[in-house]
Amino acid sequence: MQLLHQVKYLIKKEVLLEWRSKYALNGVLLYVVSTVFVCFLSFVSIVPVTWNALFWIIMLFASINAVSKGFLHESKGQQLYIYTIASPLALIISKTIYNVLLMMLLTLIALFFYMMVFDYVPQDLGLYIVATVLGSLSFSTIFTMISAIASKAGNGGMLMAILSFPVIIPVLIVLIKLTKNAIDGLDRSVSLDEIGLLLIINALVAAVTLLLFPYLWRD
Amino acid sequence: MNKLWWKILGSVLVIYTAIAGLLLGVPHLAILNETIRNLYFHVPMWFAMLTLFSISVFYSIKNLLYGKEADDIRAVESVNVGIVFSILGLVTGAIWAKFTWGQFWSFDVKQNFTAVAILLYFAYLVLRNAIDEQQKRAKISAIYNIFAFPMMVVLIMVLPRLSDSLHPGNGGNPGFNSYDLDSRMRAVLYPAFIGWSIIGYWIYTIRFRIRTIENKQNL
Prior knowledge:
The complex is a heterodimer of chains A (219) and B (219). With 219 residues, chain A is mainly α. Chain A has helices spanning 2-21, 23-43, 48-72, 76-85, 88-118, 125-153, 156-184, 192-217.
């Protein structure tokens, strides 16, 4: 009960802080929009397979920027303060949930903008949206934990990329395969394997994160 | 003698598999022909690698629980030796691929994902180099190591099964599954698994002792 209460409070705090500055939301949205424009101006017409791969590459870098902000941009004093008032479990759960919500919002906005600019809609839009929701879920669970590790190591951006890319590649490959099915408009039962695998990877990452984060947080 | 028996066992098994692997009869399969003997030298490398990485995770968990420096050195040295075995596995596979598939690197799923899995462990070593303080390094790298292990398992055991591989036994290629792998081959393959794992463990204990002595001298 105590934990639930703390989680709720911490999420509220994150949302409030974000709403005051609107830095992550606006910054990353602008980042996505300008990248999409750059891609459009350099490709103009594009085959669906490339369209799909490009979308995930854009989202990969956008989510690294959006999620890593959570831990990397917090000062030592802020972390110490939160350490004294909340349990580490509440902290990591709240950060993850907040990042999941943020990423889902960002990814959906980015997807609609991306479809509008390139004037291309995947055949099975419903499945594509399910895939983007799953994708933002996996990106945020994985990047939240890795950014916590990178921030503790005290060497932000570069370490974040090195540590997270090998971990995110398997997820990215499954995602691209799943969205490729959606683009080709295959029967949905074909994609159940990939959806199941993504959910399993997410459960795995969440379990490991919950087990390990308390050790990481305690200095 | 008490401490020696497993070293003798390992050496005898490896020498036996090297001689028997090259001389004993093998089933004649299309495409593979005599290159089937590579099974005795290629697959045991992965087995030894998995053994060493498992040892590493075991000591990482121990290090998180009790915080002993020796456990940290054990974890990193078994990763070092494991990486050597994984590179040997890639090389033996690539040489074999040159003669059966025509290219050293055929962008086969298993090749690609193993390369990514090795990147994961290189990231672990880079993370260690990024942190100066010994205790902090031990803790954070242990956390990353435990986080990386399930991802490595997904990369090399789960993902390749989802798509067709050129590997024998996958995608309709003749393979060494229960049907083809006759008892003659089992008599060499299973001793090879055990033998190479023991040799890998032996190398790791030597590396561990060298590192401990070096650390004592540097104090």
